Amino acid sequence: MVSASGTDWSAIAKGDELAPLQLRITRADLVRYAGASGDFNPIHWSDRTAAAVGLPGVIAHGMLTMALAGRLVTRWVGDPAAVRSYSVRFTRPVIVPDDDTGALLELSGKVGDVHAADSDGRRVARIDITARFDGKTVLGRAAAEVVLPK
């Protein structure tokens, strides 16, 4: 495993694993995210509405789930500005129960590729991210491209 602190960035190679990250998402988090994003869709706070549209319960905002998965990468590389690109496909919702525990989002990542970026010798790594909730993948094709520190 590799981590941001004390890492020999010149030794980062395909197959290296990032330290896993577990995050809890609560209904309070959904309320805060709704306020920050302006996304007040009731499927993110009302059990009645979620059930009416066929969902098993209130679901986390997809973009919140994506942002939390991105935290795995920024924590590892140590600088959010090092992220050159980041993309995911939403495959399953994260169901957030109405309790104090919330939903557990389990994140892991692996260096999928490393290549030279430009003439200054900096290297770029593709990080393949896995995000799971309740044992199932919730983001597909999740990957970030980051400029590695010198």
UniProtKB/TrEMBL annotation:
This is MaoC/PaaZ C-terminal domain-containing protein. InterPro entries: Fatty_acid_synthase, HotDog_dom_sf, MaoC-like_dom. SUPFAM superfamilies: Thioesterase/thiol ester dehydrase-isomerase. Belongs to the enoyl-CoA hydratase/isomerase family. Pfam families: MaoC_dehydratas (PF01575). Residues 21-99 form the MaoC-like domain.
